[in-house]
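Per-record layout

source: Scytalopus superciliaris
name: Ribosome-recycling factor, mitochondrial
length: 218
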Amino acid sequence: RRCVQQVLLSRHMATKKAKGKGQSQARVNISAALVEDIINLEETTEDMQAVIEALKEDFSRNISVRTSPGALDHITVMTKDGKFPLNQLGQISQKSPQLIIVNMTNFPESTAAAMKAIRESGMNLNPEVDGTVIRVPVPKVTREHRESLVKLAKQSTNKSKEALRKVRSKNISQVKKFKSKVSEDTIRLLEKQIQQMADEAVAEMDKLLAAKTKELLG
């Protein structure tokens, strides 16, 4: 164990020297193999990357200037039997560039719930019902609509950052469980490594948001 701590400290001191070579902040780069009995850093990386990927998917699927039938597929509908994606309850098709149709013939009892889910999806949609058919007018691409989508993208990014904070907190809590078994320096370095990983993930999210904002505003 002492050997592991010495390796960690020597690596930390080496990264500190980089400050004088143009780096504004010392970086920690701990080998996952050295601390695998304390925490699985590879799993931590995967968990943080999963949050980023979920944000990318949300941007791609739900936040677009032009509403397409595919954008409605995964709107979650609350029914008496539980939650279901809209495309499992209704047949979604585009009748014209200005109109999307959701045919609820197979699950007519869920028509009202589907209407509510579409209206509250945050996609600026105002559905109309005709029996078991839901008509969804496609919003005009106005400046106001673009700006509302940017707000939606910011909200989604903030939710993702909150999810990331939970991942970071869970992993730091895991490290602190070993306070009585390893040195304070080892704990401190691991906490710094986890925070550094979280900061890099946040920076990537901010880049995604900036790119999406530029795309939406045209």
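summary: Residues 69-137 form a domain with the Gyrase A; domain 2 fold (CATH 3.30.1360.40). Helices lie at 2-17, 41-62, 69-72, 86-89, 111-119, 143-176, 184-217.
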